[in-house]
């Protein structure tokens, strides 16, 4: 029996289609012009081609001399400092052998930088984090620019890395592309325990030795951090768009199942090339419905707010125009059906054990919340994604998944959700437009009306907290953190002190033109504020003691000061104070100056992006 699609989601999708009509048409024309009727290397001169396969072995050279088999690019974010990306060290040889079995060749086309927000939180390097996404996109473009390749395999997981790879993927939309994950590390100490220890340290109750012990027990092995932050939100989004093999996102690294999934992904991309007779360029595979599916799944699971900017950016690369209001309206139509930290106490391993992605697909499809008339790397429709991968007699197979959650405290049903909406609210008012994650908020903290305490650096707030100056109701205004001012660093280090004050019974909230971590959500935070202070946003006129309304129910974000008073005030001026120097920040001035607003993706790569 056909499942009727949710009418509100259909309506929102249609308005995105209409809004994107011109840009999408131009994009599809661009990728049509870039495709080849034969292998792409056939367009190279003999000198070009000789350079392109000079380092290959004889058998690979023999394949690449002909025009019958594909050359697959490997683009990897491997480095062995990032736990999530360390397992990628061995992937290229596994992939090359798997592609050889199909008669083709895989070449390591290029590596991309991969920085860890967990390492750089509160450090100068965090100012580069968001901009690294655009660097990754450009690095991937360089890797693919040789026109040797007929398909691509993207190896990346964490915060800005997958969005950067996706921007490049959409830019090279004429190529079939498959993403290959590496999986989460084993569960460490419970996330609530980790958060408790952090707050103890913020209060001065324990020293750095105890804090490091707790952190090292949480982040302790190869694999993705297990909370549902940006990295794991990325994996979910990529799978829901059909760019992963079904059920691949959360299989642990260094297991036989993980290796077989990697081999299968490598073989799968060769089935989508022009030479296979089943050509499926990724730019046509991913459309407006695919993007809406990604947002729906993100909202249904309470995923990272960072994706509000990243989805806007990589959709734009495919000619699809998404805005904050789309997120808000889809959130109203989508129930929250998972509880994964910071929305609950479970981690992604518990989510996987409770039914994982296959069960999530079943729930969302059954409620008419996902478009099924989409294409994936496995063919049309989403039915394959309701099955889960298993090794049976040493062979990879997909089998029926559970129909009922193994833990209803982790995965609920759409009929009885944890929350009637997806827990994301767009706030608007005289201060501008911002995003508020409500899925993790406690009852009673959705509406905060309190006097402002203004900071122009997150460390100023920490200092005030330690001095005992914040024992009161207040709205912390942390400004000049926006894209053009600072590159939009995450302000996750503010979570422990603000959480301590909240636990003491004070009504606290945050308003900022910066970002919070994908692991944040306990404290109401109006983030990604547009326009930012450096662009003349009203946040630049806020003074200590001004009353501010942050309303996660009505969607109001208002500075409660008369227009006459505000007209007499001058904007506070940004004190660079070394923020653009050191730790490589001086190299990024050109990019920082050209970043668009948060609600257009905070991206430096698209002309006319603020029009």
UniProtKB/TrEMBL annotation:
Pathway: Carbohydrate metabolism; Entner-Doudoroff pathway. Residues 72-382 form the Dihydroxy-acid/6-phosphogluconate dehydratase N-terminal domain. Its EC number is 4.2.1.12. Binds 1 [4Fe-4S] cluster. Residues 409-602 form the Dihydroxy-acid/6-phosphogluconate dehydratase C-terminal domain. InterPro entries: 6-phosphgluc_deHydtase, Dihydro-acid_dehy_C, DiOHA_6PGluconate_deHydtase_CS, ILV_EDD_C, ILV_EDD_N, IlvD/EDD_N. It comes from the Bacteria. Belongs to the IlvD/Edd family. HAMAP family: Edd. This is Phosphogluconate dehydratase.
